[in-house]
Design goal:
alpha/beta; Transcription Regulator spoIIAA; disordered C terminus
Length: 123
């Protein structure tokens, strides 16, 4: 298991606290996000998906039960994960997301066809 933590491009600033951890299991293809997924941390989900691409896992699970989507950058990161999974013929299961987050992510990057085919699995 690998844990990814945010690296701020300008270095730490007073009051900065890493707001998201991405726990990655390369054997099972599972990413657990803990904290706030937003502009400052969305790159962690991108990095985790990049790591999953080099595995043989046919199904990826992104668990957001202990995460909050803080802004549209967080939604776009989830949408990008959907698109990347589809482009590489992988299934993506999103656990713990509200109906609003699932719907918004699908509008940004997924499709109703993906849901119907099982490519994107809601809670």
């Amino acid at each position: 298991m690998v844990a990814l933590h945010p690296v701020l491009p300008t270095g730490p600033q007073p009051g900065d606290v890493p707001e998201l951890s991405a726990h990655l299991d390369l054997v099972t293809g599972r990413v657990e996000l803990v904290g706030r997924l937003d502009r400052a941390t969305a790159h962690l989900l991108h990095d985790a998906v990049s790591a999953l691409l080099v595995t043989t896992c046919a199904q990826w699970t992104i668990d957001v039960n202990r995460a909050t989507v803080g802004d549209h950058h967080g939604l776009r990161a989830i949408a990008a994960a959907y698109r990347r999974a589809g482009r590489h013929h992988r299934q993506l299961v999103l656990l713990g997301a509200s109906a609003t987050v699932r719907r918004a992510a699908l509008q940004l990057g997924g499709s109703e066809h993906a849901v119907a085919s099982g490519q994107v699995c809601p809670n």
